[in-house]
Amino acid sequence: MSASGEFEIETQPGLARRMLIAGLIALALCAVGLIASANAAQPLTIAATPGPMADAVQHAADLADKQGLPVKVIVFSDWVTPNVAVNEGSVEANFYEHKPFLAAAIKARGFKLVAVAPAVIMPVGLFSHKVKSLNDVKDGATVAVANDPVNRARGLQLFAKAGLITLKPGVGDGATLHDITVNPKHLNFIELPAPQLARALDDVTVAQVSYSFFLASGGDPNAALISDGTGNKHYAIQFVARPQDATDPKLLKFIKIFQSDDERAYLTQKYGNAVMPAW
């Protein structure tokens, strides 16, 4: 009604314009809802390496599926591609590396990744198909360690723990072959990709092997001549993601499911001390 008391009639073009705007808003809201629904229906993708890593995360994925959270586990056979896949957004997270390995990968390749939560501790051992005791290692024997910086350092520290070599004090995660100060048995060290070390046991006297790959090759971790133990959380395997995905509700829900009594019981029953929960 106008100031003069007369009713105003809205013109047809004005009414049509308002109806069009209202329709566009409704369509936009519908589209947002459809996108959100589609994203919620998409499975969470987790990259893992073969053996216990893939098995552990797949068991948790089965638990998650029962709770309405679909999870797809993608297995890679090397220790580089899982970080590449997460960094480029092909998968939401990976499950195969500890913090020292992640830090070295970020430094070497510039990945934008963060550790989200600890999962399990998996020891590394010295194994052999040729000797039954460290005392049986002969002078000049060829032995193998990992060729990536952090796991090579972990292996060298294990050889030092075994009394086969001495390292410079304080080298820690930065230890290299150049840091060997005493090598009484004149061991010949070769470096190999970590996934290949279990297969090298027929060719070398002793090799550093992650329990993950040793189990995947059908080996018994109880056969280790020595190991670095299960309680060192410095080497706890982490869930790793991009910073923008680290607080994703689906990922956090899955981590909570992984860090559950059901998953703990499964790992303990199947792997004993070879794969220890780190939460």
TrEMBL record:
SUPFAM superfamilies: Periplasmic binding protein-like II. GO terms for cellular component: membrane. InterPro entries: Lipoprotein_NlpA (IPR004872). Keywords: Lipoprotein, Membrane, Palmitate, Signal. The keyword Signal applies. The keyword Transmembrane helix does not apply. Pfam families: Lipoprotein_9. It is found in: Membrane. Belongs to the NlpA lipoprotein family. This is Methionine ABC transporter substrate-binding protein.
